[in-house]
Amino acid sequence: MAIRFVEIKASESTETLNAEWVILTNDGKQAFNTRGCGMTVGRRGTNKKSMLGIIDPGFVLSPGDRVRMCTGNPGTQAHGAAPEDGIKNYFLFLPKTYLHGPGTVLTLVLRGLPVSKAEYDPAAPSGIKA
After folding, report:
1. pLDDT digits (tens, 9 = 90+) for 7-20
2. In the predicted model, is pLDDT for residue 96 greater than 80?
3. Parallel, antiparallel, or unpaired for β 66-70 and 21-26?
4. How confident is the model at residue 112 (pLDDT cuts 50, 70, 90)?
5. For residue 111, which of 34, 57, 47, 2 has the smallest C-alpha distance?
6. Are 65 and 59 in contact (CB under 8 A)?
7. Which of 49, 82, 77, 79 is nearest to 67 (CA)?
8. How far apart, in whole angstroms, are the C-alpha atoms of residue 129 and residue 119?
9. Confidence check: pLDDT of 3 > 80
10. pTM exceeds 0.70, yes or no
11. What single string gives the DSSP state of each residue in the chain?
12. Distances from the Cα of 37 to the Cα of 13, 16, 57, 58, 76, angstroms
């Protein structure tokens, strides 16, 4: 699979959930359906991971496409507005933020197998450790 994280952004407030997001892209030649995929969060150097949830109904990521997965709910005003910059937004409807500083490792999984993995680094321009 050529699915990869291209940006990780943490929210500056635990209240504005839609200001926290990850952007995925499909660098492959075939479309990828995220239905049934899950996202895990863990820390660098440990095998302990927590499942954030299953992406359902999901979305199809066509070759060359990007999708921003925002943490919150678009219908909850307190979660803030998601960016409107030409990248499609998909909302995870999570109750709280999941990025907990440098070293947070996010993994997109399908049936328990990793599809893509990235480590959060707030000092990096894209938020992803090189």
Report:
1. 999 999 999 999 99
2. yes
3. antiparallel
4. confident
5. 34
6. no
7. 82
8. 5
9. yes
10. yes
11. --EEEEEEE--SSSS-GGG-EEEEEE-SSS-EE-TTEEEEEEETT---EEEEEE--S--EE-TT-EEEEESS-TT-GGG-PPP-SSSEEEE---SS----STTEEEEEEETTEEEEEEEB-TTSTTSB--
12. 27, 25, 10, 8, 24
C-alpha to C-alpha distance for 38 and 82, rounded to whole angstroms: 21
Tokens of 115: 């599809």
CA distances for 35 relative to 31, 61, 84, 94, 128, angstroms: 12, 11, 24, 17, 24
CA distance 105 to 113: 15
Give the tens place of pLDDT for each residue, 32-62: 999 999 999 999 988 899 999 899 888 999 9
**Token match 């050529």: residue?**
2
Q: Position of tokens 């909850």?
A: 76
